[in-house]
């Protein structure tokens, strides 16, 4: 598909919902800046030296006011930035408008169709005939997937002359992706190869995407260096332990006007996000049950007073089902949903949209969809006249229905890790330090992110003497 791209008075491209919201977005960004000590300290330390001058950064991450602070940290350090959201429903339109008007190219709005979503990714990667970005800020892997599939298609086209066939797959999003690649191949048959040759590296913050990249490293198909910020200490220990990252109860209350107290809630997966969600639901008065495949995590849940059962044990009894096992396909199937009690609520608190079998639900013969409000739907099965309520069309509920990014506890740590990783990759680009492998964020940079926060929180760090150090 081709959508019209708009331009600011200075010629910067953008596509957002409503530029009239830019002033409101700017107010929200200024509030977020006050809480995001690490990024503001990064600007103070590096702004004068402009270490990212000349760097092209493509960002694929939820377009919120907190993300705006990250974008404007990059531009303050000299980078040119193009951005899209990593979720069709997660953009906060006022923040997108402010960034598009003031500082960077943005292609994002809340409620994108699948075709629009992939179009936005393509635009964020597009610097014209001169190739793509030098660096990518990743949150899920779709931008990388587009480049890798594009390279594969270009190699096939060069050898055989065959174009990608969207009908070769039943996956509707992959069909869209292959259509985008096909439509551009004859115009520029080396477009994605040029992107690969220019790309210095990627910072990635989603666990499942990181695992896929480790797999590519193992089989020799990884084409660029990656810094894994998902497993940084300041990411795993602080944003997860605060209980804010999932925002499950918030999303539920906002989306479906749900009383959680007294309800039976099933949390599918007891990793870091699952623990937070289970704890938040318990504190809201729910009786919580966990489903788990890992015996260690199952034992942790039991030792914290949470019952561990299979989904089949509880599917017809529970009131709320929250999937937190990020990246796992088909955790809740259409057959599960048919067995649920009337008006059971189903939502996804993991990052990907295939954990709930939305395709099976949407194509179930005779199923009826009743929309309560934006991104809250009741699906009624014809044989029982019983229905389930699905939030955010099976996508990440906190960013679709709630605000999603607490400035201090989540965004300041996570986004500062991205900033440190991008600086590291760019400043070491000619030294050979980073090969085509996945690396952890260096410890001294992880500690730097933590240190950036101390003054804001009123802390004073004790320094070791030489004797203590020895």
TrEMBL record:
Pathway annotation from the record: Amino-acid biosynthesis; L-homocysteine biosynthesis; L-homocysteine from S-adenosyl-L-homocysteine: step 1/1
Keyword field contains Hydrolase: yes
Residue ranges of every copy of the S-adenosyl-L-homocysteine hydrolase NAD binding domain listed in the record: 240-404
Gene3D superfamilies per UniProt: Adenosylhomocysteinase-like, NAD(P)-binding Rossmann-like Domain
E.C. no: 3.13.2.1
A single GO BP: one-carbon metabolic process
PROSITE patterns xrefs: ADOHCYASE_1
Cofactor: record remark: Binds 1 NAD(+) per subunit.
Keywords, in A-Z order: Hydrolase, NAD, One-carbon metabolism
Required co-factors: NAD(+)
UniProt family annotation: Belongs to the adenosylhomocysteinase family.
Name by which UniProt lists this protein: adenosylhomocysteinase
Organism this protein belongs to: Eucalyptus grandis
């Amino acid at each position: 598909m081709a959508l019209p791209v708009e331009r600011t008075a200075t010629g910067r491209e953008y596509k957002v919902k409503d530029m009239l919201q830019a002033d409101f977005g700017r107010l929200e960004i200024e509030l977020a800046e006050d809480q995001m000590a690490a990024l503001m300290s990064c600007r103070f330390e590096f702004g004068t030296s402009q270490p990212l001058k000349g760097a092209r950064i493509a960002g694929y991450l939820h377009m919120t006011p907190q993300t705006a602070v990250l974008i404007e940290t990059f531009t303050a350090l000299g980078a040119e930035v193009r951005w899209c959201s990593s979720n069709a429903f997660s953009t906060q339109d006022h923040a997108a408008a402010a960034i598009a008007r003031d500082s960077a190219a943005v292609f994002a709005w809340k409620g994108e169709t699948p075709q629009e979503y992939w179009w936005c990714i393509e635009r964020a990667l597009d610097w014209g005939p001169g190739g793509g970005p030098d660096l990518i800020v990743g949150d899920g892997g779709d931008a990388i997937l587009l480049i890798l599939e594009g390279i594969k298609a270009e190699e096939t086209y060069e050898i055989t002359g065959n174009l990608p066939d969207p009908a070769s797959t039943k996956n509707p999003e992959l069909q869209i992706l292959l259509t985008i690649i096909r439509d551009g191949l004859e115009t520029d048959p080396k477009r994605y190869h040029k992107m690969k040759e220019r790309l210095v590296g990627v910072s990635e913050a989603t666990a499942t995407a990181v695992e896929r990249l480790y797999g590519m490293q193992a089989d020799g198909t990884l084409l660029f260096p990656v810094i894994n910020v998902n497993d940084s200490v300041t990411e795993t220990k602080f944003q997860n332990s605060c209980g804010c990252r999932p925002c499950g109860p918030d999303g539920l209350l906002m989306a479906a006007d749900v009383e959680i107290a007294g309800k039976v809630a099933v949390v599918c997966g007891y990793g870091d996000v699952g623990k937070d969600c289970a704890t938040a639901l318990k504190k809201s008065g729910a009786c919580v049950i966990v489903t788990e495949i890992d015996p260690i995590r199952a034992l942790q849940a039991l030792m914290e007073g949470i019952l561990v059962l299979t989904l089949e044990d509880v599917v017809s009894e529970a009131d709320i089902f929250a999937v937190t096992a990020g990246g796992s396909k088909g955790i809740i199937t259409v057959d599960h949903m048919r067995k649920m009690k009337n008006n059971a609520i189903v939502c996804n608190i993991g990052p990907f949209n295939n954990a709930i079998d939305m395709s099976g639900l949407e194509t179930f013969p005779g199923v009826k969809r009743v929309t309560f409000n934006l991104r809250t739907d009741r699906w009624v099965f014809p044989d029982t006249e019983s229905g389930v309520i699905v939030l955010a069309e099976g996508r990440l509920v906190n960013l679709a229905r709630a605000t999603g990014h607490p400035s201090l506890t989540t965004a300041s740590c996570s986004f500062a890790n991205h900033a440190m990783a991008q600086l590291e990759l760019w400043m070491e680009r000619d030294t050979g330090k980073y090969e085509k492998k996945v690396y952890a964020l260096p410890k001294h940079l992880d500690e730097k992110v933590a240190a950036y926060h101390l003054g804001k929180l009123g802390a004073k760090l004790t320094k070791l003497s030489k004797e203590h150090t020895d």
